[in-house]
Each structure stands twice: as structure tokens, then as C-alpha cells.
């Protein structure tokens, strides 16, 4: 499936009163502590294009190629976002059972999603071990997804964002 950013998106613009109502409700939630746990800012380009970012070919257990390209499913993207939310929490790595609780899936399903995302080339998983060589948790590297996303977008002429330089004060 080939989709390009030039295809565009349809969007609806809210009326002025609806925007004010939304702002008021948002502020009420914040004041009651709803957002005190924190929030995650997700790049819009990741939200819009994750389903079209090509991954590695998939193979079965015997080594036969099943597909030329692979893509993230909505559930795999939800898992990626859940892992992404932990990046801002001082590099705390969630357990499989914590991820399963967040996604409403079983531990076994989450392990399968992680393995499949790794096989597709969207995620690197590094086991972490304690001094007694018992596995503590996994370290999840999400950079492969973002590298693939940037390559996909650049293939359509979208430029990678540059870091802004700080202006010198006189």
C-alpha cells in the first residue's frame, strides 16, 4: 500500500464556543489532578503515518518469506506509545505485566507484540540483568521506529526537522 503525504487529510474546525468549552473542561480536569501524573507529547507525524512506515520483511519459523514489507498494527502502535510514555519517567522500564495492564492484553500477547515489533525492525529489546544474573527488565529502544518514520517521510520530500540554534543575546 502506497500513501503519500500529498494525499492530505480532511479535518473539521470546531466552532468558537466548542473550543472554549473544551478549554474550560480541560482546565477543570487539570485542577482536579487529572494531569498531575504527567502526559506524553506524541509527534503528530508518528500518529498520522505509523501504519504506512515500512518495516522488515516477515518470515515464518522455517525461514520462508511471508511478506516483502511489514507495518505496525494499531495495537503495536499503542504498545509503542505506552513504551514512549515511560521515556520521560527517568528511563524506568516497564515490566511485561505493567504493559499488559495498560493495554488490556495478557502477558503472553504483549510478549508476542514485542517480539513481532522487534522482528519487523521497529523496536530493539535489550534484557537487563542484576548482579545475580537474574533478568530484571528489558530496555526498549524506540529509535528504530523513528528512524524508519523519518526515512519514509523523506522519501516523499518531507525534511527532517533541524535543531533550532539559540540566538545570541547582545
UniProtKB/TrEMBL annotation:
Q: SUPFAM superfamilies given for it?
A: Winged helix' DNA-binding domain
Which positions, given as ranges, span the membrane?
A: none
Pfam families, A to Z:
DnaD_N (PF21984)
Please state every residue range assigned to the domain named DnaD N-terminal.
72-155
| Gene3D superfamilies named in the record | Winged helix-like DNA-binding domain superfamily/Winged helix DNA-binding domain (1.10.10.10)
Instruction: Report the superkingdom from the record.
Output: Bacteria
**Which InterPro entries does this chain map to?**
DnaD_N (IPR053843), WH-like_DNA-bd_sf (IPR036388), WH_DNA-bd_sf (IPR036390)
Query: Know the name of this protein?
Result: DnaD N-terminal domain-containing protein
Upper lineage is: Bacteria, Bacillati, Chloroflexota, Ktedonobacteria, Ktedonobacterales
Amino acid at each position: 500500500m502506497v500513501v503519500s503525504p500529498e494525499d492530505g487529510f480532511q479535518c473539521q474546525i470546531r466552532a468558537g464556543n466548542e473550543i472554549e468549552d473544551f478549554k474550560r473542561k480541560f482546565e477543570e480536569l487539570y485542577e482536579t489532578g487529572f494531569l498531575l501524573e504527567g502526559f506524553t507529547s506524541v509527534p503528530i507525524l508518528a500518529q498520522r503515518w505509523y501504519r504506512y512506515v515500512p518495516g522488515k520483511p516477515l518470515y515464518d519459523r522455517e525461514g520462508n518469506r511471508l511478506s516483502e514489507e511489514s507495518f505496525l498494527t494499531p495495537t503495536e502502535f499503542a504498545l509503542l506509545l505506552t513504551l514512549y510514555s515511560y521515556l520521560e519517567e527517568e528511563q524506568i522500564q516497564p515490566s511485561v505485566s505493567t504493559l499488559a495492564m495498560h493495554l488490556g492484553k495478557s502477558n503472553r500477547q504483549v510478549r508476542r507484540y514485542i517480539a513481532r515489533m522487534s522482528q519487523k525492525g521497529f523496536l530493539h529489546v535489550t534484557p537487563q540483568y542484576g548482579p545475580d544474573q537474574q533478568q530484571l527488565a528489558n530496555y526498549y529502544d524506540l529509535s528504530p521506529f523513528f528512524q524508519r518514520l523519518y526515512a519514509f517521510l523523506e522519501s516523499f520530500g518531507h525534511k527532517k526537522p533541524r535543531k533550532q540554534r539559540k540566538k545570541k543575546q547582545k
